Amino acid sequence: MTKPDFYPFTGISKSEWKAKAVKDLKEKDFEKTLVSTLWKELKIQPYYGIEDKPAEKTETLFNPESGIPGLPPRIWSNAVSIFPTDPSSSNKEILHNLENGADSLIIHFQGNENLEKLLEGVFPEFIEINWVIEGNSNQEAFSLIKSWVEKKSIQKEQLKGSILWSPFDFAFSNSGTLEEAFELAEKLIEDWKEYPNFRPITLDFARYSNSGANGIQELTFGMGELIELIDALTEKGIQPEKIFQNLAFHTTAGQNHFGEIAKIKALRRFLVELAAQYKLEISPESIHLVVSSSLWSKTLMDKNSNLIRQTYEAMAAILGGCNTLWVRPLEETTASVMEKRIARNVSSILKEESYLDKVMDPSAGSYFLDSLETELIHLIRNKIVELEKRGGWISDFSSRRIHQEIRETRKAVQLAVLEGKELKVGTNKFPASGSLINNLPFVHIEEKEQDLQPSRASYLVELQNLGKL
Hints:
- This protein has helices at about 15-25, 30-35, 85-100, 115-120, 140-150, 170-175, 180-190, 205-210, 215-235, 240-245, 255-275, 305-320, 335-350, 365-390, 395-400, 400-420, 460-465; strands spanning about 35-40, 40-45, 75-80, 105-110, 130-135, 160-165, 200, 200-205, 245-255, 290-295, 325.
- By secondary structure, the protein is of the alpha/beta class.
- A 9-stranded parallel β-sheet has the order 7-6-5-4-3-11-10-9-8. It has a two-stranded antiparallel ribbon with strand order 1-2.
- Strand 4, helix 4 and strand 5 (about 130-135) form a beta-alpha-beta unit.
- The radius of gyration is 23 Å and the shape is globular.
């Protein structure tokens, strides 16, 4: 035990610190000089003390305790993307990944693949499998997944994973009505009711952040989707408790490192609060968060700089409480073997060499992060109230208010990067030259009225430098 007088320093209050800082600044304004702003609405103070510590804040449990003796307290799955082509070669890729650090698959498929050949030698009871449907035949794809699972004859509680499909995909892709989507969601919940650790619906908060929304907008509109989904399904006779049990949530970890940690932690905490509004008491560790590295933060210029970004984003995802860590190479389908290997190994390095699995919630007790998380919760709560007063998520989607807000935020950031007001290494600061240039091919991003396509903060700089080549 550390003795109280072990550190012979005189304590100082925050007000005393500020008074000294104001004196040292002389004629300069304290707020303008030392206080910054995150996502235009959250003030970041230059100093945080015990006075800023929220009274109710304690360590958050991110995952249930492992039933295997000797495992560390913090557990997350290391996910890799699989884009099946030839079943034989894709199967070899899957097995190679599972033999070299991955324990979660994110399979992107059309719905007509031969899953027996694709997943030959894979034991789903020991890993996590998540499914992304790239084609338009949702019903057929869902049936294919269920048929394959039933053929494996594993114990139902051993199946872990999710379907990365949201009813609101229909609205953004204009592939059907929301009523049709809610009916499909109802059927999925019924079809998978006997699999307690498999979540057939995943609300995609990441669609907002990857298209340029800030963290406040992402949580506000994502929570708006959740409220609409609960309202629609309870009208169909499904209890809120059952809805929460069948949901996973996909978010991103972006470039604002501490802000992203606070955002992911705030998401889990807000979900617990929202459940309480429906008279449910759910534990934080029962919530499943799939956290991917951001697409918005990456750049086509000096592509190797993306390797650094995806690493500190993965660290934010773990500290924020991800249950599935999905490090995504920007190229995805065309990524090289080396780039895929680096993405897969990030999780292993942060676990085996940085020991981030030894403590459940390492950032708990940080005056700064605890304060930021609490402020973010209060702000999102107010934003949700405003959203509901306007008629809810569906009303804002129909009027295209959601699209307008996100596109305005996106454009402001992209212009700031283009004009050099926001620095991006390798893009508008220290760009590569000569033989060091390693840019990716530029492709114009086209977006329909109802759509929100993934974009990049560096897009306008890329357009200026690569778009005319």
